[in-house]
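Aim 2 progress update. The chain analyzed this quarter is reproduced below.
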Amino acid sequence: MRANWREIWAEDKVLLTSIALVVLFLLAFFWNRIFVLIEAGHAGVIFRPLTGGTDVDRTYDEGLRIVAPWNRMVIYDARVQQVGDEFRVLSSDGLEVSVEVSIRYRPMRDDLGLLHKNVGVDYVTKIIKPEIQSQFRYILGQYRPEEIYTSQGFIVQTVKQGGLAQLADRYILLDDLLLKAVRLPPTVAQSIESKLRAQQLALEFDYRLESETKEAQRKKIEAEGIRAFQEIITAGGITESYLRFRGIQATLELAKSPNSKVIVIGGGRDGMPLILDGRTDAPLTDDLLKSSAGGRSGDPQAGGAAP
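Predicted structure tokens:
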């Protein structure tokens, strides 16, 4: 066998060298098509031009794959992705509204073959954006501009539900839909802002009116209490005991003031003490108690200046 190989090599050295060089050249040229690395979070779909086209039954997971050079491996990002879009729609009264959205999506991994065969790698511009725009145009076309501000949450949920069903039929999963901005024509926006300010002012006036009404009720109740008190006092007369009690109350309140300086005990009959200098509370309380008990306030020994 070795002799045969040596004979073959000796006879066809040039031919075998040429074949080896051609194989090496082809291997180097098609290296990227033969050895395909599928990164993390990605998946591959193989296209066989000689044996049936796109393989829709199998999706290739992450890792190094060896592919025949006449076939081609197409790699898709199978993770959750995000794309922004901005477009214009017409409201129910024909005014133009600018909408800015953010779309989160991902292709269905098990259906990548069908996605590649029926749509292609540019499915974002072919399917996702047009479908979301179509849903927004249909929903916002039923609202007036001033209603869009107050119904944004409901609008987004409605568009999301419709887009979820439509994109699922095209092998795409809509993960979430965010409404970033709604821009109305300047004149419409100004009129809406003016209306909102007027509503806030009306609410403020209602609050003030309610507060004033309650204050009037409070004053009425207070006045009725004073009138009842005066009727009771007028019917029974103002007695000396009542006046002495009120005097003691006033004196105690005055004693709490840090500005009082001298205590003078009244010199008349049943005279009440007046505080002009209060440095301690205990002697003052004793004097008030003696006065309220009917002490001889008219006695010169009972009056005078406190130490």
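The longest strand covers residues 96-107. The chain has four domains: 2-77, 81-184, 195-237, 240-305. These observations will guide the mutagenesis experiments scheduled for the next reporting period.
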